[in-house]
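Troubleshooting log. The previous structure file for this entry was overwritten by mistake, so regenerating from the original sequence record. Sequence copied from the archived sheet and checked twice against the printout by T.R.
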Amino acid sequence: MIVLDASVAAKWLLPEAGSQEAVALQEGPDELFGPDLIRMEVAAAITRRVRDKEKPLPAAEAIHRCTKWFRLLDQATIALLPESELLEEAIRLSVKIPHTLQDCLYLAAAVRLDASLITADRPFHDRVKPFYKKISMLPGCEKN
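Regenerated output below.
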């Protein structure tokens, strides 16, 4: 079992450093999980690219990629865990670590499942590592 955060799942739809490794997780044997917040966070990452001055994504392409993302969710590529079941633990983790509540929802999911947590977000990884040894950086993103 692996909990992925949005920084990893977004790489399935936005080619960048670590995308091949993220796709390998998607196609691998492990069950993938995330809080239902991941639905919105990945869509937000895609639509944010429309406003990116360095690597802009055409609006129609962003809409297409969001549709593809929702299709992946409908196919249960990632099992979604209800935020309501994770929120109390995420709040405790957020104030203990301290780190954002949104990211701590992913951590709470990993703690609940006793699963590995994979991220491409270096600050999140570095902040959580002393508290949760099963967090790791997505290969290809270690230098981020």
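The longest helix spans residues 59-74. Archived copy saved in two places this time.
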